From TrEMBL:
One of its GO terms (biological process) is cellular response to oxidative stress. Residues 62-126 form the Glutaredoxin domain. Keywords: Disulfide bond, Electron transport, Redox-active center, Transport. This is Glutaredoxin domain-containing protein. It comes from Ceriporiopsis subvermispora (strain B). GO terms for molecular function: glutathione disulfide oxidoreductase activity. One of its GO terms (cellular component) is cytoplasm. The keyword Electron transport applies. SUPFAM superfamilies: Thioredoxin-like. CDD domains: GRX_GRXh_1_2_like (cd03419). The keyword Membrane does not apply. Gene3D superfamilies: Glutaredoxin. InterPro entries: GLR_AS, Glutaredoxin, Glutaredoxin_euk/vir, Glutaredoxin_subgr, Thioredoxin-like_sf.
Amino acid sequence: MSVLFNLFRSFTSSPPSPVSILRHSFSSSITAAASSSRPSLYQQRIMAAKDLVDSAVSQNKIVVFSKSYCPYCKRAKALLSSKFPSVPTAVYELDEREDGSDIQSYLLEKTGQRTVPNIFISQQHVGGSDALAALDSEGKLADLVGA
């Protein structure tokens, strides 16, 4: 209420119109929100996705960010499980997670790749299914996994 009173007092020749009061009030709200030191909801979600991805990559030998219905993801997961059955593989099905879109956005920022599968082996970004198959056919996949 005091904001409105001060606004009213600032007009010397005529009272403020309802539109000018709303404009001032809206402008003050925007300024207050912009000057807040807390991260926005979007920033909080991306930071949570970053924490999840970075921790998964650092704590697991093989990490696959996947979608359960994706044929390329199925092919990559099948290759990894058949070649390295004793190597634990962390699989994140992004379509089954509430934060899947946020994770995919962070993966784009981190790797330049938004598509799935998005594969990490020994903390290195490998790429997708075709890149994984190429490493295998070149005989480099086992070395990368360390198996």
